Every structure is written in structure tokens, then in C-alpha cells.
Amino acid sequence: LFGKKAQHFRQQTDDDDDDDDDGEHNQRRQDKSRIPFVENPEAVRERRAQQRAAWQQRHQPHRSHTDEKHDVVGNARGRGQSTTVAHNRRWKDAHGNHNRRDRAAQKSNRGLLS
């Protein structure tokens, strides 16, 4: 018969080593029985917070820049505007409300916005 290999089974003997194995087996069984039915709520809360933070880092990377302000107020009349204010106004026109964005694109194409 091709492909069959002889199987060797290890025979158990009644030595002192088996007593240690039984003791370890009983110890494992007791450890499993001591597993709490309900997990510690603080540990669960901490684990969920870490999972939520990891998910947000993967799926919402742009949310990390919430501290940036797009200041469009600028200086008083006649004082001139800084380049950052002009840049922020263009950004707000392009990325704001879709109606405002479309109208800003029309005006910029006509040359009405500077």
C-alpha cells in the first residue's frame, strides 16, 4: 500500500511527570473558571476609545486640522488685506456652500473677482 506511513502512538506511563501535568491541567481549568462573566467596564471603555481613535485616524485624517481658522475678516477699510486673508477668502469661496462656490466660479471666470 503506497503512501501509508506507520503511525506511532506515544504510550502513557504512570510516572511522577503525569502528576505534574495533571496539576497544571487542573490549574488551567481553575483559571478558566475564574474568568469574569462581565469585563471590567473601565477596561472596555479604554479599549473602545483606542479603537475609535484608531478608526478616526484612518478614516478622518482631515479632522486633525480643526484648529486651523480660515479668517476672512481682515483689516479695517483702507488698511489693505493680508495675503492670508485673501487666500482664505478664495478658499471659502471655493469650498463653502455649493451655491456660493458655483457663483464664485462664474464671477472668477468673468474676471469680477480679483
Task: Describe the overall structure.
Residues 1-114 are annotated as: Disordered. This protein is an all-alpha fold and 114 residues long. It has a domain at 83-114. The chain has helices spanning 16-33, 41-59, 83-95, 98-110. The chain starts with 15 loop residues before the first helix and ends with a helix.
What's the SSE blueprint?
Layout: H1 16-33, H2 41-59, H3 83-95, H4 98-110
Helix pairs in contact: 3-4
For this entry, give a set of tags.
55% helix; 114 residues; mainly alpha
Radius of gyration: 35 Å
* Percentage of residues in DSSP E strands: under 5%
Largest sheet: none
Task: Spell the H/E element sequence.
Answer: HHHH
| Class per helix and strand makeup | mainly alpha
Give the rounded overall mean pLDDT: 75
Low-confidence stretches: none
How many extended strands? 0
Count of alpha/pi helices: 4
Helical percentage = 55-70%
